[in-house]
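In line with agreed milestones, work has continued on tokenised descriptions of protein folds. One protein thus recorded appears below exactly as we store it:

>
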Amino acid sequence: MTSMTAESVATILVSCKQTRFHIESPNYKELDIEGLNITVTSSQTEAKARVRAKAASKYPEGTEILSNAKLRLKAGQRYALIGRNGSGKSSLLKAIAERLIPGIPEQTRIAILQQTDADDIGEGATTTSSVLEYVVGRATSKDVLEREISLLSDGLSTGDEVKAIRALRQVHHERMQKHLFVLDKMARLRSGARGMAARKELIAFEKEVTEFSVLQQQKDEEIRSSQAGAEGLQEAMDMLSDLQLQLEPAKMSGVESRARQLLTGLGFSESQTAKSIFELSGGWKMRAALAAVLLQETDILILDEPTNFLDLFGIIWLQKYLRSFEDDPEAPTLILVSHDRDFISLCTDLLILKDKDLTYFHGDLSMYEASKSERRQYLSKMKDAKDKQKAHIQSTIAGNIKEGKKKGDDNRLRQAKSRQKKLDDRWGLEVGAKGGRFKLNRDFGQYAFKMRADIEVPLDDRPLHIVLPQPPDLRFPGPLISLEDVSFTYPIQKRGSPQAGRASTESATLKNMTLSIGSGDRIGVLGLNGSGKSTLIKLLVNEEKPSQGNLTTHPRLKLGYYSQAAVEHLQRLGVAEPELTALSLLTREVEGQLDEGDLRGILGELGLPGRLASDVAIRKLSGGQLVRCELARLLWRCPHILVLDEVTTHLDYETTTALREALREWKGAVVLVSHDRWFMRGVVEGAVDDGEDDVGDDSDDDAGESGMRRRDVYRIKDGKLIKLDGGVQQFENIVEKKAGRLLPG
């Protein structure tokens, strides 16, 4: 086996094993890579990078993501890539998408959605590009084809054969530069005989590029006097005809029709589709980028956190759309990263990145966790039994040695020696990898110091444990927040109307809402984007005043409000104050009410311990860490109620799980707006796992003056608050019906 190393323009070093007889699979939807190593390094000069790359297989520098891993993807399967934040999921996806991994053929069509796509919109669009034009152009490389057509048309329209030939040569030059980049990358990726062949091909093509550059520098008189005139003119006309066929209206109309369907499913209206792509917010730009990725014809489809910028309708529509590939023999292989547990249930397999290795599980996350738990329990019981058996054998050996030496009994001494050899050489797991009894000639295929593996019980990978401070006593009963026949209408000037300042003639945003929230209650609010969820939240936290009706709060109420714009606010604050840390921010806000030890305790319980809280500036914290910082700003006051508006958007799966568990057990009241169905079922409905309710939690003595905790889910529709007796599942069923009608045919 030989090992080779590759380096991306960024900071990713990749190496893997290949035999000298390696043949690339003709099935571009499959990957089978062994001995995969990935290391992420800081940027260096090209010379230093080459030196490092040569030694990377032995002494990799930087952060090692994978070490001797196996990357195996089966055609048409849907993989959920699971791993903690910082484990290297994005680096692995980038290495696949950019074909940095040897063994991924250059012909493999790979489409990827990354979290930075909104920032890269300008690279694939002009200032006049509409959303539809951007999506179609990015998916079909229409802009490249149109550029080539424009070059050739301009050259041929003059009737001057010299200009036509120069246009033709310009098109050839641009194509040769792209091919040169591919050959250069293949020469760096491959080693051994294949590497030598790739380098020879690169050298030969570099010679062609050099010779062609001489032709580009020819003067007009030289072109006219050469024999290239008539032939070049005909070649330019033929090439233009072929390019125009690729963009023929009948073909492009079908692509545009499909693009419109995708954009509609992702929430775009007809007017939004016609807007300039640069007029959209970051979230809507990401939806447009997602539509472009879904429109592409691809072998491997990679989606990195596609649900972060979608509402529940968009999430369910995308989930149903990806599920619709099940019976399609031409379906791409999907790699999906998402912390939305319900969303990744569409995947057939889990791809787990842990401890610098990749492991595989056929099934969903619940099955995987149950399997891990059963395996842990089985190994624990087996280890206990083997430890008792080993202790008994060691006691017998000691007794035999003592008796044998005392009585000079060689048989006992030989027996003791034989048993000791068994303990030293063959003690351990008695079950093979496939579950059958261990057999030496089958399971022990190579030299090792021990013939059997030790029984090792895997550590419980329990996620972050969040502790919420319990609310203080209210001293006298009463609802925390009460709405009585409340309606609300935004003034026209708040909607950017040119008639700002005049009396509002618009209908109410919220109409005749009545809601009472008591101690310990759990209230979930669902609705489509623009239905008024955030408006209701602003009324509850007193950021807006009712247009009519009464809103009252308990006189001793302490309220904690998490806004969906909290992370962006902290990021702006970090830019304005570069040295500000989470600890210094809280110290400033508590104004001496708590000491540093208390604040460190709150931050530590939320996952910002030690130097992370005191030494790392807020501007350097990740999105998930900023969420924890914002929660600390709310919780130090020990609120009676938490109003949470999309609190899970930036959180990883482990932190979301920990927060869900903490809120389930918390004594205070919770009002939750979230698109994460699994999170809402756990917090509001009290679901423990797979929809099973924790009925014992509703009768706790801390759940309010009645002794019962209310768990209600509401839907906002047409400005009205509607209680859903069927909870989250009822709303999900409603949205699924609507989403199903918008799936492309």
User: Anything to note?
Assistant: The first strand starts at residue 2 and ends at 7. Residues 378-443 form one domain. The radius of gyration is 32 Å. Residues 365-407 form the longest helix (43 residues).
